[in-house]
């Protein structure tokens, strides 16, 4: 059964702390924080100061998903703000990604590597020994509420087969357009963590929404 990481991009930003507390108390496993800079992706969201403020509302692990250029410049700020896992995109800085992953780990944080839909998952293979989490994007990052792209699902199986070959499996997260139907598809493909925004925060009953996502693939 997959774990659930509500994505705060779909939360009510006018009461963001309360929203984080609400999903935490409803049984979420992580808080997924979408960080966008208006350059790597077209949208702009939040920075490390907001992460620091939100820490008071939840004891759950925070996944800071850095959809930004030059994430290496901001690792310490997000680490000190209270991020537990820092995810960076392979597309953001392919030439120095290994150093960035190691720098994040040197700050005492777990590290994740994100792969956009057009990017072959094989491009992440050289870094499997350096990461604690692999994020497969099932939409092109930048905006919430996009339609799930089922063509990315084979990446999960391909990645896990390579991890098995290496003898070093780490959890695979999927992010983008996740609801009960798409979560079921992802769970059957072997995903470990569902990052879900709208289907959690806009649900009439947040606890039931999280429980339903966790039951995907059961």
Sequence-ordered SSE layout with sheet pairings:
Layout: E1 3-6, H1 16-25, E2 31-36, H2 48-54, E3 62-67, H3 75-81, E4 85-89, H4 97-106, E5 110-115, E6 133-137, H5 153-166, E7 172-175, H6 180-189, E8 193-196, H7 198-201, H8 206-214
Parallel strand pairs: 1-8, 2-3, 3-4, 4-5, 5-6, 6-7, 7-8
Helix pairs in contact: 2-3
Can you give keywords for this protein?
single chain, TIM Barrel, 218 residues, 8-stranded parallel β-sheet, globular
Would you write up a description of this structure?
The chain has a single domain, classed as TIM Barrel. It is globular, with a radius of gyration of 16 Å. It is an alpha/beta fold. It has an eight-stranded parallel beta sheet. Helix content is 33%, strand content 18%. Helix 2 (48-54) packs parallel to helix 3. The protein has helices at residues 16-25, 48-54, 75-81, 97-106, 153-166, 180-189, 198-201, 206-214; strands at residues 3-6, 31-36, 62-67, 85-89, 110-115, 133-137, 172-175, 193-196. The N and C termini lie close together (6 Å). It has eight helices and eight strands, in the order E-H-E-H-E-H-E-H-E-E-H-E-H-E-H-H.
């Amino acid at each position: 059964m997959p774990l659930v990481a509500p994505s705060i991009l779909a939360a009510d930003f006018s009461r963001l702390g309360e929203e984080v507390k609400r999903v935490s108390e409803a049984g979420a496993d992580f808080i997924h924080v979408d960080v966008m800079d208006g350059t790597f992706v077209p949208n702009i969201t939040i920075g490390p100061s907001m992460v620091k403020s939100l820490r008071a509302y939840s004891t759950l692990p925070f996944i800071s998903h850095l959809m930004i250029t030059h994430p290496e410049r901001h690792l310490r700020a997000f680490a000190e703000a209270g991020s537990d896992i820092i995810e960076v995109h392979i597309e953001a800085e392919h030439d120095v990604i290994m150093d960035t992953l190691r720098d994040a780990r040197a700050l005492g944080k777990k590290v994740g590597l994100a792969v956009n839909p057009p990017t072959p998952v094989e491009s992440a293979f050289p870094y499997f020994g350096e990461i604690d989490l692999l994020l497969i994007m099932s939409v092109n990052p930048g905006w919430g509420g996009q339609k799930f792209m089922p063509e990315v699902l084979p990446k999960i199986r391909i990645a896990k087969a390579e991890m098995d070959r290496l003898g070093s499996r780490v959890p695979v997260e999927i992010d983008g357009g996740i609801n009960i139907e798409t979560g079921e598809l992802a769970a059957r493909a072997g995903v470990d963590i569902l990052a879900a925004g709208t289907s959690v925060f806009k649900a009439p009953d947040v606890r039931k929404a999280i429980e339903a996502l966790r039951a995907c693939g059961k």
